[in-house]
Amino acid sequence: MTLYSQADSNIRRTWFLVSGFLIFIIFLGWLFSYLLDSPVILIIAVIISVSMSFGSYWYSDKLVLAKTKAQPIKKEDNPELYRLVENLCITAGIPLPRIYILPEEQPNAFATGRDKDHAVIAVTVGLLEKLERAELEGVIAHELSHIGNKDMLLQTMTVILVGTIAMVSNLFLRVSFYGGMGKRDSKGNSGIILLILGLVAAILAPLAASMIRLAISRKREFLADASGALLTRYPEGLARALEKITSDQTPINRVDNSVAHLFIASPFRGKQSKKWFTKLFLTHPPVEERIKVLRGMKI
Question: pTM here?
Answer without folding.
Answer: 0.76
